[in-house]
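Run log, item B.
One chain of 448 residues. Sequence copied directly from the ordering sheet:
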Amino acid sequence: MPNSDQQQTATATITPRPRKAPRWYGLLILALTFLPVPSLHNPWPAQAAENEPGQQMVSIATILTQDMEGKPLRFPSAVAFDKDQEELYLISNSKDGIIVYDNDFFPYIALGKGRGITAPTGIFFDGQSGDIYICQDLAPPKPPRLTIVNSAFFLRKEITFKQMPDGGNFSPKCGTIGKNGNIYLAGNNTKGVLVLDKDGNYLRWLKPLDLVRAPTAKTDETAQEPNGLTEVSQNELNLTEPSPEAKEADEGFGLPENLRPKSSSMAPPRKDGREMAPVQIVNVTSDQDGHLFLLSEDTSKVYVYSPSETLLFSFGEKGGSGGKMSRPRGIAVDDNKKCIYVVDYMRQTILVFDMGGKFIFEFGGRGTGPLWFNFPTSVTTDRLGRIIVSDLFNHRIQIMKPSFDMSFPLFYDANKAENKLKEETEGSPEEIGPAPQDDSSIFFKDND
C-alpha cells in the first residue's frame, strides 16, 4: 500500500492544468468596454433601423471646435441660425458669451459684456424687423431679462419680468416670435410659456395641462388656485378673447369638436398619484406657418398649438428605449423637409418626427467621433436644411447633412382631416394624448 506521500504525489499528477483564455477574448472585453455606446434604436449612428442596412440617413458636413481667437470651444450650450442673414449664433462658456459665424462657418464677431451680454441662455430672431432677441439669466446687478438688439447689434430694448404676473422668479431660456407678432418665452423651471406682445407687454401665460406627479403639480401657484385648472386652453390667466378671425382659423383647422381641448372642472385624484396640472416647458419654437411647438422635459412630450394658441395635439413618450424621450432639451422644425428634430440630452440622440408627431428614426449615441454626442443640448437648422447641434461635453458644434426624404404633411387639409377623424373616432378623450399614430395621412396633402 502506498504511503501518504505517494498518495499526495499521485493526486497531484492527475490534477488538470487551468486553461488560459484565448488572446482574442481579452481584446473583445477591451473593445466592449471602451467602444462608444450607440443608440438602442439604431445600432450605428445616422442609420435608420427601418431602412436597408448601411443606408446613411445623416452625414457630417463640418465640425466647429474653435472660437474667435482660435482657442478651443468651451461647453457650447445653445445654437441658433438666422436664416435671413445666414449666420450661426453660438452661446458658449467663455468671455465672448456669443460667437457669430458667417455662412461659411467662420467666426467673425463676438458679443460680450461690452454690448451688455453677460449671461446669455438663448437666441431667436424676428424675420420681419431683423431684430435679435437674447435671453439672459440673472447676472447681478442685472436681473433676468430679454435683450433686443438690431441687426448691427446695437441695443434697442431690454424687458424684465419682475412686475409681470407670476414673473417674479422668471428667467428666460429660449423663445420664438409668433405669426401674430407675439413673443413666446420658455424659462428655467417654469410651467408653460410667457406670452408678450410685440412691444414686450404682458399678455398671458400659455400653459398646457397634462398628467404629472402630484408633488410636481403642487409646486405651481396656479395649481393651488380654485380656478387654476378650469381651462385646458391657452388663456387660463388674464384671459384675452381671441379675435373672430383667429376663432375662424381654428375652426377650419380640421379637428372635430370631440378632439379639441375643452373646459372641465378639477379632475379627482388618480390612484397612480398623478393629476392634471400645468407642465414645465424647457423649449419653444415655431414653424413658418406660425404653429407653436412647446417641449416638456417633465412629460417628454411636444405640445402643438395653432397660430392663435389653440392646442391641437401632443406627441412623445417618456422612456430610455428607441423612439422615446428621456431628457429632451432642444427642438427645431425643418420647414422644407417637414420634420421635427428633438435633442435628448440623456439618451445622447436626435429624434426625428414628422409634422403629425409620428416617430421616423433617430441617430447618435454617446461617443467622441463624428455623429456621436456627449450630452447634446440644442438643435437648429440652416437655410439648406443642415442639422446643427451643440455637443456640450465634446466642446464642439456638429453640422450634419440629412439625406432622408420625407412626405410633406400639411395641417391645412381640413376637409380630409375632419372626415377621417369623424369616421374613426368615437367619444371624447379624457386627457391630452399623443397624435394619431396609426394613420398620419390625415395630416398629409392629398396629391391625387
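Observations after the first pass:
- Residues 55-443 form a domain with the Neuraminidase fold (CATH 2.120.10.30).
- Helices lie at 4-14, 23-34, 214-218, 221-224, 244-251, 414-424.
Flagged for discussion on Thursday.
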